Amino acid sequence: MTMYFHEAIYKATSSQRGAFLVVNKQVIPLYKKITTLGRNFENDVVFHEDFLSRSHAEIILEEGQYMLYDKQSTSGTFVNGKRVDDCVLNSGDLISLANIQIMFIDNNSTLMGKSIGVTQALGGLHHER
Q1: To which H or E segment does residue 26 belong?
Q2: Cα–Cα dist 101/67, whole Å
Q3: Less Cβ around it within 10 Å: N or C end of the chain?
Q4: Other C-beta atoms within 10 Å of 66: how many?
Q5: Can you tell me the distance from the alpha carbon of 68 to that of 89, in angstroms, rounded to the nearest whole number?
Q6: For residue 98, what pLDDT is reported?
Q7: 3-class SS at 19?
Q8: How far does CA 49 lie from the centroid of its chain?
Q9: pLDDT band at 126, cuts 50/70/90?
Q10: Are 86 and 38 in contact (CB under 8 A)?
Q11: What distance in Å separates the CA atoms of residue 28 and residue 47, rounded to the nearest whole number?
């Protein structure tokens, strides 16, 4: 699979909390209100795959949650194996655009706080040999 995303996507820093897409071991931050995906070079995330629509799908931040919209693509948009026209994305959801697998991660501050607390609590454990 060949893909690229616009340089402007790197505006988000690694320390910034937010949402990300993980595609083929690449992490793509979602720093814009609307992120477009498809074959057309004008998309934010471009896939060079013939079976993908030019303007396949988009992810929109609406009222604090990320929504995924299929843009009447030929091969469809799926979340966790179910075909969707639109849906709310939850952290860990697996998005499929034809045979491209994309994981959605929402690294918001509430989740970060919970995971840090757990990690710190585990840090005090000692292993005896």
Answers
A1: strand 26-30
A2: 17
A3: C
A4: 20
A5: 7
A6: 86
A7: strand
A8: 18
A9: very low
A10: no
A11: 13
Tracing tokens 């998309």 back to the chain, one arrives at 43
Residue located via tokens 């814009």: 32
* Side-chain-facing half-sphere of 29: CA atoms under 13 Å: 16
Q: pLDDT-based confidence at 7, cuts 50/70/90?
A: very low
The candidate with the shortest Cα–Cα distance to 89, out of 99, 97, 78, is 78
Write the DSSP symbol of residue 8: G
DSSP per-residue codes, 84-129: ESEEE--TT-EEEETTEEEEEEE--HHHHHHHHHHHHHHHT-----
φ and ψ of 64, to 5 deg: 85, 0
Could you tell me the two tokens for 27? 């992490």
